[in-house]
């Protein structure tokens, strides 16, 4: 079974003169454990692709299947609890990190675990482990206002990964980070892909990070122009 299946996915914004076809007839599958990069110029439709798969942005046409559940088929599938599917199966890492301002770094991560009914002591342990892996062991009890942009971004990443979601959707997760912390994030994503069989889609402009991916999708004018194996794109035959 695929973790993500997309068939004929099309997203059109607006009507008449202001109509924009942001994604046009995208069809692909991602297996559990695959780490996929999405590359493409500004405005090509990368974020729209992620949000349409991520149950945030209703597709205009086409089908989206997440971990075996058909979530969209010519619009949302009626009768589904989209919030619950989002909470249980998906992890999002977006540029705006949306941390809860009155909770510490630890508590921001623990909330995501407790909402899915993990006991408090286990939530604490998991939150501390993730934050420490992301070089935030010294910031556990800080509030978001006392964190740098890159630190807040990493807390948001820890929160998105906390429940070991089957599908992780990340929009420029390393853009605000220095090379060392960017590499930590990529290592953590790779680890989750391998150990938890999560399928991970990462929109990135960050060519420093591209070599860790299993596959690369090139988006151009709303179309997935080339889906190439990483080896062909980078020419690095030591990979994989
Ligand atoms: N809510 C919206 N309403 C109308 N048009 C939109 C909306 N969101 C995006 N678009 C348009 O859809 C197209 C694709 O946008 P999208 O944000 O998906 O591109 P992107 O590749 O993620 O861009 P960037 O790299 O700049 O973030 C663009 O032409 C954009 O202007």
From TrEMBL:
InterPro entries: AAA+_ATPase, ABC_transporter-like_ATP-bd, ABC_transporter-like_CS, ABC_transpr_LolD-like, MacB-like_ATP-bd, P-loop_NTPase
One cellular component term from this protein's GO annotations in UniProt: plasma membrane
CDD domains in UniProt: ABC_MJ0796_LolCDE_FtsE
Boundaries of every ABC transporter domain copy: 4-239
Superkingdom of this protein's organism: Bacteria
Keyword vocabulary terms for this entry: ATP-binding, Nucleotide-binding, Transport
MF GO annotations: ATP binding; ATP hydrolysis activity; transmembrane transporter activity
TM region positions: none
Pfam family, one: ABC_tran
PANTHER family: ABC TRANSPORTER ABCH.1, IMPORT ATP-BINDING PROTEIN
Similarity section: Belongs to the ABC transporter superfamily. Macrolide exporter (TC 3.A.1.122) family.
Protein name according to UniProt: ABC transporter related protein
Organism in which the protein naturally occurs: Geotalea uraniireducens (strain Rf4) (Geobacter uraniireducens)
Highest classification ranks of the organism: Bacteria, Pseudomonadati, Thermodesulfobacteriota, Desulfuromonadia, Geobacterales
């Amino acid at each position: 079974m695929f973790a993500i299946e997309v068939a004929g996915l099309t997203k059109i914004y607006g009507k008449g003169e202001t109509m924009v076809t942001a994604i046009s007839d995208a069809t692909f599958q991602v297996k559990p454990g695959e780490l996929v990069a999405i590359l493409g110029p500004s405005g090509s439709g990368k974020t729209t692709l992620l949000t349409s798969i991520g149950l945030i942005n209703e597709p205009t046409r086409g089908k989206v299947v997440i971990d075996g559940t058909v979530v969209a088929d010519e619009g949302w599938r009626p009768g589904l609890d989209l919030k619950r599917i989002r909470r249980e199966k998906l992890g999002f890492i977006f540029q705006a990190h949306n941390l809860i301002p009155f909770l510490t770094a630890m508590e921001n991560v623990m909330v995501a675990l407790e909402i899915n009914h993990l006991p408090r002591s286990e939530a604490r342990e998991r939150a501390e482990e993730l934050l420490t892996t992301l070089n935030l062991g010294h910031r556990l009890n800080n509030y978001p206002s006392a964190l740098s942009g890159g630190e807040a971004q990493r807390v948001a990443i820890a929160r998105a990964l906390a429940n070991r979601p089957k599908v992780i959707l990340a929009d420029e997760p390393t853009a605000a980070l220095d090379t060392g912390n960017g590499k930590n994030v990529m290592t953590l994503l790779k680890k989750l892909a391998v150990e938890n069989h999560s399928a991970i889609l990462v929109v990135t402009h960050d060519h420093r990070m591209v070599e860790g991916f299993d596959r690369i999708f090139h988006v151009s004018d709303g179309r997935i122009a080339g889906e190439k194996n990483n080896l062909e794109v980078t020419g690095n035959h030591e990979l994989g």
